Amino acid sequence: MGIDNDHALHELAGESVRAGRLPACLPERILGGQGSGAACDLCTRELRACEPELEIEIAATRDGASRRLHLHVECFAAWDRTREAL
After folding, report:
1. Hey, which residues does 70 pair with through a beta bridge?
2. Closest among 84, 75, 79 to 1, alpha carbons compared
3. Whole-number Å distance between alpha carbons of 35 and 51
């Protein structure tokens, strides 16, 4: 990703956290692997099999359900920086 794309991802991450689409809390667990074909929870692009994917597990909420996010590495970095800043 270039500088402009990094800035755009950071802006998108901020909007997503403020809107509640992505959490502002620390993940319980982070797993890495090959792209699963799922849509990235930040940029919505496909996580292709030829690229790495991070699966983030968020702690159970009041309803007892945990949440899993699927992110590109650069999308995770943008979300993590944003989460820490907020």
Report:
1. 55
2. 75
3. 6
Reported pTM: 0.87
pLDDT surpasses 90 at 73? yes
For residue 20, the Cα-to-chain-centroid distance in whole angstroms is 12
List of domains in the chain? 3-85 (3.30.1740)
Radius of gyration of the chain (CA): 12
Distant-in-sequence, close-in-space partners of 17: CB < 8 Å, separation ≥ 6: 23, 24, 79, 82, 83, 86
Structure tokens of 58?
């968020």
